[in-house]
Amino acid sequence: MSDATPRNGRRGLFRKRAPASAPATPASPEPPASSADVPPALRIAAAYGWRLLVLAGVAGVVVWLVIEFKLLVIPIFVATLLSALVYPLVSWMLRHRVPRIVAVILSVLGTIAIVVGLVWLVVWQVSQQAGGVRARMGESVQTLRSFLIDSGVVTAQQLDDLFSGAFQLVQEQADLLLNGALAVGSTVGHLAAGILLSLFVLLCFLYDGATIWRWTLRLFPRAARPAVDAAAKNGWATLINYARTQIMVATIDAVGIGLGAFLLGVPLAIPIAVLVFLGAFVPFVGAIVTGAIAVVIALVYNGLWFGIAMLAVVLLVQQVESHILQPLLMGSAVKVHPVAVVLVVAGGSMVGGIAGALFAVPVAAFLNVVAVTLSSGSWRTGDDVRGDLIWSTVPRTLGRGDEQNDRKAGR
């Protein structure tokens, strides 16, 4: 039998089957570019980018909710700041075995009495001196107008146009403020409701704040409660220190500038002092604005030299308060970042107007301390919060040495 392959293509009986040829595989497409082909810098930027977008979206929603519920949020913020301001007095009375309800009522009634007394003094002096101030300011404006015309700096027509434009601008701004006040519900009814709500929340915070916080803490997961509790307590201590510092600064500035205005014979000394006191609760910006108002009143009513003297009084009081009295009473660990505070105040005023400027710094300080507490892990050990804080104050304890204050400051 021949080993040759049969011509019909069939294999012989004892021949092996020839291996079948493998089917041709189609050409596979090019593999897609993997994440390794993306530059690392672009990956990092994209990761930060979408996280920042999420955070911006959350912040935008929070701001929108605050604006929508401003009639509820503003009284709660006012009550929170008042609680931080009054809480040291309540704690002092509790340490002296005064019943809690009595301590709370006395503290709130004392605060109301102080506010009512200041308002009565302002109304009384304005009613006594408003007519004379208005007439004297008219005379000063006419004197300035005659001086500018006689010196040839401007013409009478230009001055008339300037004064009319300024009057129109003031009128437009007054209408804008009135419409804005009505838009946010600052009618008599809404204002009364806001005051009553603030007083009610203030009483609840002072009398049963610990219970309210324990209930709020149960809203968080069990594993996160120790961190949230420590961060909130550090933030609350910061608010107390902030309120204590600002009330001290406001009192020093108001007494000093008001007394200087009285001795110089500047009218409306008590309203100027009250305005300086309230303006001090807007750090940096408030002191500048209220001091400028005092200087302008002295300049217009009493003349150039009295205006310069009032400016010297304002600068002297602010320098003594910031460089001598504040370190003496609060210790050397008062740490405030001026740039951060000014930017926070400007942003708050852009978003919420006067209320935004008032609450911007305490809210930012609270959030800053909370963030540093959580990120540094100090909530695990109970150590003092260390880091870059927008507002960090360590009150000086009278009768004790500087060594203990330094330990409190973490130095």
TrEMBL record:
<feature type="transmembrane region" description="Helical">
    <location>
        <begin position="254"/>
        <end position="282"/>
    </location>
</feature>
<comment type="similarity">
    <text>Belongs to the autoinducer-2 exporter (AI-2E) (TC 2.A.86) family.</text>
</comment>
<feature type="compositionally biased region" description="Basic residues">
    <location>
        <begin position="8"/>
        <end position="18"/>
    </location>
</feature>
<keyword id="KW-1133">Transmembrane helix</keyword>
<dbReference type="GO" id="GO:0055085">
    <property type="term" value="P:transmembrane transport"/>
</dbReference>
<keyword id="KW-1003">Cell membrane</keyword>
<keyword id="KW-0472">Membrane</keyword>
<dbReference type="InterPro" id="IPR002549">
    <property type="entry name" value="AI-2E-like"/>
</dbReference>
<feature type="transmembrane region" description="Helical">
    <location>
        <begin position="188"/>
        <end position="207"/>
    </location>
</feature>
<feature type="region of interest" description="Disordered">
    <location>
        <begin position="1"/>
        <end position="36"/>
    </location>
</feature>
<protein>
    <submittedName>
        <fullName>AI-2E family transporter</fullName>
    </submittedName>
</protein>
<feature type="transmembrane region" description="Helical">
    <location>
        <begin position="288"/>
        <end position="316"/>
    </location>
</feature>
<keyword id="KW-0812">Transmembrane</keyword>
<dbReference type="GO" id="GO:0005886">
    <property type="term" value="C:plasma membrane"/>
</dbReference>
<feature type="transmembrane region" description="Helical">
    <location>
        <begin position="48"/>
        <end position="67"/>
    </location>
</feature>
<feature type="transmembrane region" description="Helical">
    <location>
        <begin position="101"/>
        <end position="123"/>
    </location>
</feature>
<feature type="transmembrane region" description="Helical">
    <location>
        <begin position="354"/>
        <end position="374"/>
    </location>
</feature>
<dbReference type="Pfam" id="PF01594">
    <property type="entry name" value="AI-2E_transport"/>
</dbReference>
<feature type="transmembrane region" description="Helical">
    <location>
        <begin position="328"/>
        <end position="348"/>
    </location>
</feature>
<feature type="transmembrane region" description="Helical">
    <location>
        <begin position="73"/>
        <end position="94"/>
    </location>
</feature>
<keyword id="KW-0813">Transport</keyword>
